[in-house]
Specification:
Layout (H helix, E strand, L loop, with lengths): L3 E5 L3 H13 L3 E5 L2 H8 L6 E4 L8 H10 L8 E5 L4 H10 L3 E4 L4 H11 L3
Parallel strand pairs: 1-2, 1-3, 3-4, 4-5
Helix pairs in contact: 2-3
Length: 122
């Protein structure tokens, strides 16, 4: 059975690019435009990994990760932050919230897929 990855980004074109890369590698993809929408889509679904932007309207990525980690069913879901933010302080804030990896845009799909394969829950 294919693993499911949620892509959370306010840019539809970026969600599409990431989605194509993930689908071509055999993953199922669920998309959300911001952290609030992502939380509402999670429910009891088995999500193997989340790729999330930092800067989004309504709920930013770091707040989303904090909220996600409060949920028993998603507490251990790995999160890769995919963002234009490259400052160490932001990275530390993301790691403190529970993000497992940090990929800076623009990104190479093979770099993202490598991180996904390493972190994706069974």
């Amino acid at each position: 059975m294919a693993k499911t990855i949620m892509v959370v980004d306010d840019s539809a074109s970026l969600r599409q690019v990431v989605g194509i890369a993930l689908k071509s590698a055999g993953y199922d993809v669920i998309e959300a435009a911001d952290g609030q929408i992502a939380l509402s889509k999670l429910g009891d679904k088995k999500i193997n990994l989340i790729v999330c932007d930092v800067n989004m309207p309504n709920m930013d990525g770091i707040t989303f990760v904090r909220e996600l980690k409060q949920q028993a069913s998603h507490k251990f879901t790995p999160v890769i932050m995919l963002t234009t933010e490259s400052q160490e302080a932001k990275k530390r804030e993301g790691q403190a919230a529970g993000a497992r990896a940090w990929v800076v845009k623009p990104f190479k799909p093979e770099v993202l897929l490598g991180a996904v394969q390493k972190l994706c829950l069974p």
